Amino acid sequence: MARYRVMGILTDRTALDGLMAQLQQAQVKPDDIGVLYASEQTVEAEKDRTDVAAGAAAGVTAGSVVGVVAGLMSFAIPGIGPALGAGILGSTVAGAAAGGVLGAFSQIGLGNDLAASYEQSLKDGETILAIDNDNADQAGAVETLLRERNIELVNTFQI
Fold first, then answer.
1. Degrees, nearest 5: CA angle 20-112-130
2. Do residues 154 and 8 touch, judged by C-beta distance below 8 A?
3. CA atoms of 30 and 9, how far apart (whole Å)
4. pLDDT at 40
5. C-alpha distances in angstroms, 139 versus 48, 123, 145, 153?
6. DSSP class of 31
7. How many CB atoms lie within 10 A of CB 47?
């Protein structure tokens, strides 16, 4: 069964609350959402995970962030520094962090130019979003939603 990933750049992290609510309404499962951004915070223990999740959710209601912060982890990305990731992006980038985010993004199917654009966005303090979908129709609906929310550099590809 083909799966699809829709990615984009959120320039205003405080808009995450409304976006998560809309994704839930669109029947996107929390486990299919990934978020990645540079942060000086770290996650070293379960208590830290709760504290950092609360900090990451500043300005965002706890209910909509629960799915996003599931699996919250911290790691260092060469050339960017400390970062927080959750969901599908957290595990992908954490596994390849030593090789840099460009390599991690390339591993998930992004071309070099697009991967470099997402990497630069992280350096600029923006948030990378990824939403996995079970079918092309759902991916199309998510892509439309992201574009309507003015998410930048929205791309959909098969994974």
1. 10
2. yes
3. 18
4. 64
5. 34, 27, 10, 15
6. G
7. 9
Dist. CA 47–CA 51, nearest whole Å: 6
At 43, list the tokens: 């996650």
Neighbours of 1 (CB within 10 A): 4
**Six token digits for residue 47:** 């208590």
Nearest residue to 132 via CA among 72, 88, 66: 88
Render pLDDT for 72-88 as a digit per residue (tens, 0 to 9): 666 666 666 667 777 77
Per-residue pLDDT of the chain (159 residues), as tens digits, is 789 999 999 998 888 878 888 998 988 988 888 888 877 654 444 444 444 444 444 434 333 444 444 566 666 666 666 677 777 776 666 665 555 677 777 777 788 888 889 888 988 888 889 999 999 999 999 999 999 999 999 999 998
Beta-carbon contacts of 77 under 8 Å, excluding residues fewer than 6 positions away, are: 38, 83, 93, 97, 100, 101, 122
Rg (CA), the chain: 14
b/e per residue, 108-118, with b = 16+ CB within 10 A? bebeeebbebb
